[in-house]
Amino acid sequence: MSPRVPLDAWQVGPWNRWAYVHVDEVVPTAALARGGGPAAPLPAADAGLEDLAADLLESGWVDGLAVLHRGSLVVERYGGEAGPASLHLSQSVGKSVLGLLVGVLAGQGRLDPDASVTEHVPEVRGSGYDGARVTHLLDMTAAVDFTEDYAVDFWRYDVACAWCPPREGAPARSVLEFLPGIGPAGRPHGERMHYATPTTDLLGLVAERAGGAPLAELLSRELWAPLGAEHDALVTVDLEGTATIGGGFCATLRDYARLGALVLDGGRGIVPEGWVARLGAGDPEAYARCTVPERTAGAEGYALQWWRRDGRPTARGIHGQLIAVDHAAQAVVAILSSWPEATDAALEAAHRGLVDRVCRRLREQD
């Protein structure tokens, strides 16, 4: 690990500009092999978007920006410490990667979304997850007493994930030690959207046990290799080897764009088309009753570990990570960043505005 980066502060500025493209030098990781087949081609083209790209790159902390239009790479720009081969941390975009894998397993009949969570992970019996079904994990409607507050208590979960050094007040030293200690929220599962990263990591454990292999191996075999990724990827793991996919997925900019293209193409026979069609389109009543509505600003729904924002299936991560899929423009916009703070309303608005302007211009050109 670089001596410049303290383990208790690597996720925030100024340290994260380096750390987000050197994650395997900071915390434990497992590799996702891209397989031996050819990478899915991304031919280059010019769509006259450089002025829009420059606006965003100059706005600060953007490490990578890619735009695909009808399968062609029309923008590819890098900043900070990143380059074409950099495996960049995407924070909660990892949730959406897992959502696609679960769709593959469900389509193969290996994982039933209506199954009980404790059928696969009996360790959480008696916890807040007891009685939940897999679909409650997928749609973030599990009624658990966990607050996604990065400025206050989230460090306790980071300790369990090996993202932060042990300290007093955080007894759990692994994800499977932490999860059973999450209590119930006092309402039925499915009633409200309640965004919680441990819910995704539990879903990752469900996928592992249903798929019969470690999550990195499953992702490689069922998604990353069939996708035709250009590079191997990484997922962070705790000290017991459990994947922390809720925030710990790392890949190159082009391969994040390929993930978006997979969604744009209806799953391309890898992920079931019906599953892809439902990304971000969950129960509107549960979404309307979201427990922390300010975290959903600008979004219209959440389902299968994807957001729906401005009518687009969207993967989002703190510190400025984004994959937006626009069917009308036949476009994918992927942004990787290292914002100094987890959330930034002005930078979030800049990302959202760029996606709108890019897609509008591409629609006008068609």
- Provide the CATH superfamily: DD-peptidase/beta-lactamase superfamily
* Number of separate strands: 11
Sum up the overall morphology in one term: globular
Average predicted confidence as pLDDT: 94
| Low-pLDDT stretches | none
Helix content: 25-40%
The quaternary state of the protein chains shown equals: single chain
Question: Per CATH, what is the topology?
Answer: Beta-lactamase
Looking across the biggest beta sheet, what order are the strands in? 3-2-11-10-9-8-7
CATH architecture classification: 3-Layer(aba) Sandwich
What does the main sheet amount to?
Answer: 7 strands, antiparallel
**Distance between the first and last residues' Cα:** 48 Å
Instruction: Determine Rg (CA atoms, Å).
Output: 19 Å
* Strand portion: 15-25%
How many helical stretches?
Answer: 13
Q: Give helix and strand order, one letter per element, not per position.
A: HEHEEEHHHHHHHEEHHHEEEEEH
Q: Give the class from helix and strand content and strand pairing.
A: alpha+beta
CATH hierarchy class name: Alpha Beta
How many structurally independent domains? 1
Tags for this model:
366 residues; alpha+beta; Beta-lactamase; seven-stranded antiparallel sheet; four-stranded antiparallel sheet; 13 helices; 32% helix; 15% strand; globular
